[in-house]
Task: structure prediction
Amino acid sequence: MEIKTATSQTGTGPLSRATRSPQKGMLIVVSGPSGVGKGTLVQELLRRRPELVMSISVTTRPPRAGEEDGVHYFFRTEDEFMLLVQNDDLLEYAQFVTGLYYGTPRAFVEEAIAQGQDVLLEIDVKGAIQVKERWPHGVYIFLLPPTMEELEARLEKRQTEAAEAIRQRLTVAVDELNFLPLYDYQVVNDDITAAAGKLEAIILAERCRVKRRLPQR
Result:
């Protein structure tokens, strides 16, 4: 009499389910204080990992020359934007001092992730906290400067703001550190090559998580 084991049931055992089940993508949120180098680091990560999909924001700002709807931004009127807010179709949104609105459309993220793509979202700390409330199962990474003195030096190097504005940004940066426990990972951006390598390692580790590989029951 043949004794059947889990390994003899080709295609139906737990190993088959774990290795053959389609893997959904994930939302990767990179956040941190102004001047920490989010944009530069994200561009380096995209260069290394071109399969990552950059989230596209929706805005009430009119398109500039050469910009395309659905490529650079999703351009909407203020009434259309407010309808997205009312229908909970945004993972986060904010109104800037210019009076213009920007937000992260939920549908874009959901559709990309359903297709197995990993979506990368670069955003400030306030926005990241909003996103986590609506998408708690994402991967949240907080970028830190080596020191506050280095952060101040980076802000000054921009030469785009007065001394008082820089002091205000530094005050905000200190306050934003209080939200660090809400994140999954912290990466010190002291060297772009090393920091990008750490972001890659985080993404690869998250792709190997059992909960992301096994089908939901």
Summary: The chain has two domains: 23-52+118-217, 56-117. The first helix runs from residue 14 to 20.
